């Protein structure tokens, strides 16, 4: 694949993506490539830049795998990459519960692997990585020696890539549920049916911060899912925890996880739309010492920014109305297109609306098993801001 003049700069600087409008289609048979095909990449003068895979049907059409012209893309290639990823995780974590492969950040674009002890859950999002699937599975078996591997290939990105969605066993017999450990708590997760790969490791470090200020407090966890925040707040000594989610099965698992950690006596669940439930709490003049907001991405595409920003603002506005003086707000966003400064601005505007005086004391990020690729800002997506509401504030109900 030959690039247009000057379009090689990002690749030379370390980026792994090529867009279709950067390709010199007059000098390369772009439309003759098949989805997932391995290709060599050249600049406009024919100089070799790298090897990767192509999907001519998508705007983001090429992802680079190697910059070594002597390196074939085979099982040995994946063994080397997975071993490098494993070394980092084993230095950072004492137990085998983490994101093992984080796509581009581990130089394996289109591949996510989460580890739950001896179970690996794999998510393949691109046609190129799907074509290399057998190499991936063989390499994982060689490096990790898992008891089972589950393919959670039901991500919406696969539809963009022209791929079918499916969930199936790739190796062994993956269990219907398995146990994981995070910080000072244990959780049951459902690898076959849970969201994404069944668990969200990315907030691990942020959830650890709860131990600093939740003891003896009434805590509200919004978008609770299976209780990662709620249960850990209870484990860290919260007096009571209210968990809100729209999914009844998720809340059932939340209760089960509270029972597993022997804190179910502190937990109360509410199945409802988050915004509706928060408005009910406001109307009932209920107050909390800690409010945790960990919503799904309100901004999935850049064009959705304005509408999504308003959603974050409304959510934080409601949360501030529920906080008692000297209370704590934990507000998060997994929307790449909403920066930490944008989220901070949404909270600021909400504080003006509610006449709240706030102090920002922690700016949290994604966990250590989600490293950031220096040339790819899209790999830096998670924000968590920790605020304290000062005692001089007057909240307008």
Attribute tags:
397 residues; alpha/beta; Archaeosine Trna-guanine Transglycosylase, Chain: A, domain 4; Transcription Regulator spoIIAA; Rossmann fold; 3 domains; seven-stranded mixed sheet; five-stranded mixed sheet; 11 helices; 28% helix; globular
Task: Provide structural commentary.
The protein is α/β, with parallel strands linked by helices. It contains 11 helices and 18 strands. The protein has helices at 9-12, 75-92, 127-131, 133-144, 157-160, 204-208, 228-235, 248-260, 274-283, 305-322, 340-353; strands spanning 17-19, 37-42, 48-54, 60-66, 97-102, 111-116, 119-124, 148-153, 166-171, 178-182, 185-189, 218-222, 240-245, 267-271, 288-293, 323-333, 358-364, 383-389. The strands form 4 sheets. The chain has a 7-stranded mixed sheet, sandwiched between helices. Strands 5-6-7-8-9 form a 5-stranded mixed sheet. The chain has a 4-stranded antiparallel sheet with strand order 1-4-3-2. Strand 10 (178-182) and strand 11 form a beta hairpin. The protein is globular and about 65 Å long.
Give the gist of this structure.
Helix content is 28%, strand content 28%. With 397 residues, it is of the alpha/beta class. The chain starts with 8 loop residues before the first helix and ends in an 8-residue tail after the last strand.
What's the total helix number?
Answer: 11
What's the CATH topology label of the largest domain? Rossmann fold
* CATH homologous superfamily grouping of the largest domain: Vaccinia Virus protein VP39
Share in helix: 25-40%
**What string gives the helices and strands in order?**
HEEEEHEEEHHEHEEEHEHEHEHEHEHEE
Strand tally, please? 18
- Measured by DSSP, the beta-strand proportion falls in 25-35%
Separation of the first and last Cα atoms:
61 Å
CATH class of the largest domain: Alpha Beta
The biggest beta sheet reads:
7 strands, mixed
What's the average pLDDT? 96
């Amino acid at each position: 694949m030959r690039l247009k003049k000057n379009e090689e700069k990002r690749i030379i600087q370390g980026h792994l993506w090529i867009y279709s409008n950067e390709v010199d289609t007059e000098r390369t048979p772009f439309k003759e490539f098949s989805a997932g095909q391995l290709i060599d990449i050249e600049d406009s003068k024919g100089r070799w830049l790298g090897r990767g895979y192509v999907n001519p049907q998508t705007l983001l059409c090429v992802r680079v795998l190697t910059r070594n012209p002597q390196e074939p893309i085979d099982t040995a290639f994946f063994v080397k990459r997975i071993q490098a990823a494993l070394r980092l995780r084993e230095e950072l974590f004492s137990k085998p519960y983490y994101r093992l492969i984080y796509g581009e950040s581990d130089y394996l674009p289109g591949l996510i692997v989460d580890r739950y002890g001896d179970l690996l859950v794999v998510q393949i999002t691109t046609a190129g990585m799907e074509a290399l699937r057998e190499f991936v599975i063989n390499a994982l078996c060689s490096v990790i020696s898992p008891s089972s591997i589950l393919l959670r290939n039901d991500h919406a990105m696969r539809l963009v890539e022209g791929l079918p969605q499916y969930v199936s066993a790739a190796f062994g017999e993956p269990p219907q549920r398995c146990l994981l450990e995070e910080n000072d708590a244990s959780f049951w997760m459902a690898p076959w049916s849970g969201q994404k790969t069944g668990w969200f490791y990315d907030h691990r470090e942020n959830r650890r911060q709860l131990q600093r200020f939740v003891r003896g407090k009434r805590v509200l966890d919004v978008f609770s899912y299976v209780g990662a925040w709620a249960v850990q707040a209870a484990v860290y000594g919260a007096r009571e925890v209210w968990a809100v989610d729209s999914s009844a099965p998720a809340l059932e698992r939340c209760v089960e996880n509270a029972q597993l950690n022997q804190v179910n006596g502190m937990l109360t669940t509410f199945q409802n739309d988050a915004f509706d439930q928060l408005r009910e709490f406001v109307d009932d003049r209920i107050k909390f010492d800690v409010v945790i907001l960990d919503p799904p991405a309100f901004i999935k595409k850049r064009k959705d920014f304005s509408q999504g920003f308003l959603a974050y603002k409304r959510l934080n506005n409601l949360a501030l109305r529920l906080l008692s003086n000297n209370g704590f707000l934990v507000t998060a966003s997994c929307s790449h297109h909403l920066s930490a400064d944008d989220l901070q601005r949404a909270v600021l505007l909400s504080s003006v609306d509610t006449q709240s005086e706030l102090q920002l004391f922690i700016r949290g990020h994604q966990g250590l098993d989600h490293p950031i690729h220096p040339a790819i800002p899209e790999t830096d997506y998670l924000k968590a801001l920790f605020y304290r509401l000062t005692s001089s504030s007057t909240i307008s109900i």
